[in-house]
Amino acid sequence: MKESTLRHLILLLCLALAFYACRTKQADSTQQLTAQSEPDSLNEKVSVHHAHGFTIDYFENYKVVKIINPFEKSTDTTTYLLVQRGTAIPSIAEKATVIQIPVRSLALTSSMHIGLLSYLNSEEILSGLSSLQYVFSPKVIEMIDAKKIVEIGKDQGINEEKLITMQPDLLMTTGSPGSLKEHNPLLSEAGIPVIINSEWVEKTPLGRAEWVKLMAALLNKEEIVNRKFAETEKRYENLVQLASKVTEKPVILSGLNTKDVWYMPNGNSYMAQFFKDAGSNFPWKATSDAGSAPLSFETVYPVALNADFWMNVGFDPNDTRSSVLALDKRYSDFKAFKNNRIFSYNNRVNTRGSNDFFETGNVEPDVVLADLLSIFHPELLPDHKPVYYKQLK
């Protein structure tokens, strides 16, 4: 073989090896990029069994969340497209609000939704919150003190300019009539999506708690929420089964007369379901609405006279039987007052006056039910010490 031919073959071989190495490196890089772009949790999906206010469907690189508005007479559904970061936004995005996931910074209009983050151990993404004084979570309070969380408003008011300046990935607001229309246009123009959370109008405690699955979908934490919620669900259902054995069901009165209005849980509210599941008789269980009904003292009084337990009494953790009686002397006529069977959900209140019943209590229905069951039927849970409830002295 001629020397020139040999050199030509060696050159071709070197070029071939170099080309192969380049293609291999390129393929490795492409595989790495694809791996980084693939969703962390789309292989793990949540199924919604108890909540009626939202649905989640899964696709290759995105999730479709639909929030049902319970405040309109006709069905009104808002659609959200949860798109995995680094992947293409599907064409159907024109008909939905796009949210890039996992959400890295979140603003909340209600401290009640902190419990959703705590359940998933994800408080670190919280960057904005309304009414900072209502927070119970020690971890979130620490973040507030470190200036890691910005106050975005007070009570129902939202500082939209501050929100636009801080640019969170998402704002979660509490569902109410007109809540989406109130803030959506201006914030949408600024590229801040708004999602509505209406967990408080769910009809069952497990339904209300299941909104934590929506938060998990936003954070790609389906695996965690599936495991934890299954445990919560099992404990709750075991307690319901335990309560089903009782033969005598005490009559329950709930709430307090405030400014001439007594807000009584309706029969389709999660609180009425709590009373039922704890083996009690709630006189207003037949009402078909969710939420609460504004009643007069005169309407409640005849039933209240013979109620065995008076629950959810008082808003101040320092309330006593005497302080409640000072509000209206007619309370002394109640059987539950005479027998000292008055309880409030103020057992976990911090020095700021913030109540954990409205944070972690929302996502621990099994613990709340255990509290109620130990109060109504102490023989069934003799070793349980109430977590959220306490007896007024």
Automatic annotation (TrEMBL):
Extent of the signal sequence: 1-27
GO biological process: cellular response to iron ion
PROSITE patterns on file: FE_B12_PBP, PROKAR_LIPOPROTEIN
InterPro entries, A to Z: ABC_Transporter_SBP, ABC_transptr_periplasmic_BD
Lipid metabolism found in the keyword field: no
One Pfam family named in its UniProt record: Peripla_BP_2
Entry superkingdom: Bacteria
Keyword Signal in annotation: yes
UniProt entry keywords in alphabetical sequence: Signal
Domain Fe/B12 periplasmic-binding: from-to ranges: 104-380
Protein name as catalogued: ABC transporter substrate-binding protein
Species of origin: Dyadobacter luteus
